[in-house]
Task: structure prediction
Amino acid sequence: MGLENTNDVLMETAVFEEFESNVRSYCRKYPVIFSKAKGSLLIDQNGIEYIDFLCGAGSCNYGHNNDYIKGKVIEYLQNDGLVHGLDMYSIAKGEFIQFMQKYVLAPRGLNYKILFPGPTGTNAVEAALKIARKAKGRSNILALMGGFHGMTLGALALTTERSAREACGVTLGNATHVPHPSMMKNLDTIEYIDMILSDDHSGVDKPAAIIVESVQGEGGINIVPDQWLRDIRALCDKHDMLLILDEIQTGCGRTGTFFSFERGGISPDIVVMAKSIGGIGMPCSIALVKPEYDVLAPGEHNGTFRGFQLSFVAGKAALEFMLKENVLDETVRKGKIVQDYLAANLPLIDPGLTFRGLGLMWGIDCGAYPAGTAHQIRQLCFENRLILELSGREDSVVKLMPALTTDDATLMQGLEIVRSAITQVITATVASQTTGDEQDNTKLFA
Ligand SMILES: Cc1ncc(COP(=O)(O)O)c(C=O)c1O
Result:
């Protein structure tokens, strides 16, 4: 592709190991130094290409360096467009708002004010919590077990992953977690939530809101049924609490519709978005708020980087691109390719493998195998030039999140790498289980 490194001297990973904080994370799983990216490919400084099934954790839905989006950003910069604007009125922001209203919200019959909370998803969650608590005058928020909503303290109180919670060093409060519908087959979670909110001896404080991911991304690709979305909407109305949809990972077309909640035909009170709303990996988040809940007074939620204009330019261009290239339909079509591929191949490897997903967001569940199995699969994929991440309990779910713009050949090539890695790891694991040999996969790829 002509994207090889042209620098004279290659960089050493020691730069990071010596001087970057220990908290660094993704880089430990893919210890090469990336220099370029195009479409579905990440390219390291040696010019080695990796197929990207991680996609910036969902921030690059429309492909790396998407020519259309990048072109708009370059043109804007070349014309000395405003880059930093606090939350002042600007052409870039105005155009983003107008486009979002006209082509995304209005056609779906959605009426929202757009709030710009800051550059990251967790900023949007914090803003949503503030709004819900102020609007309802209550502090408690319901959240689903397995959910991930961000790493700042308010959002972290809703996030369930133990290590992330423990690391914050304070007691996290004002949240009540309820089981996800996928967790206990015999539990009607709607009935359960209704019960704890109705029973004056449940010990659960009346909440201001419930926050829901329609597909849990970090939690292991756990999907709430369409009917559950309708039922939770009705329950929110019954108990006078707001429904917050976290679309930070599932939004921007990832599941085949712009918002993943569209399959339920519901209208949430607040929708939080980030990641691909910045178009080309630019930092941006938004909270969409029903006008009656637009209760924060001027300045009650603030921040320096709520007006990064390049995000607005890229964000609008991404929406244009999505419409003109039929990205949503294409995502559904490619999602079917992934589904058919997994359905045809995984049972041939081992019946213990299950999978689930929507659009181009899929998870292969290795929970039936020893801890560390999925880590091994990720490592083998990496060695075979495919980047992907794990999610769910004990990182047991192999997550596939290709760019929505990926071409069919690259998609198939990535799937083949995944299949081959799973075959190798699972075959060895099953063989060692039948011979009684202990195989502790956690030690192999710490
Ligand atoms: C569903 C969901 N909510 C919130 C967040 C937090 O977003 P950020 O990392 O931009 O703060 C994430 C990040 O992965 C997410 O997947």
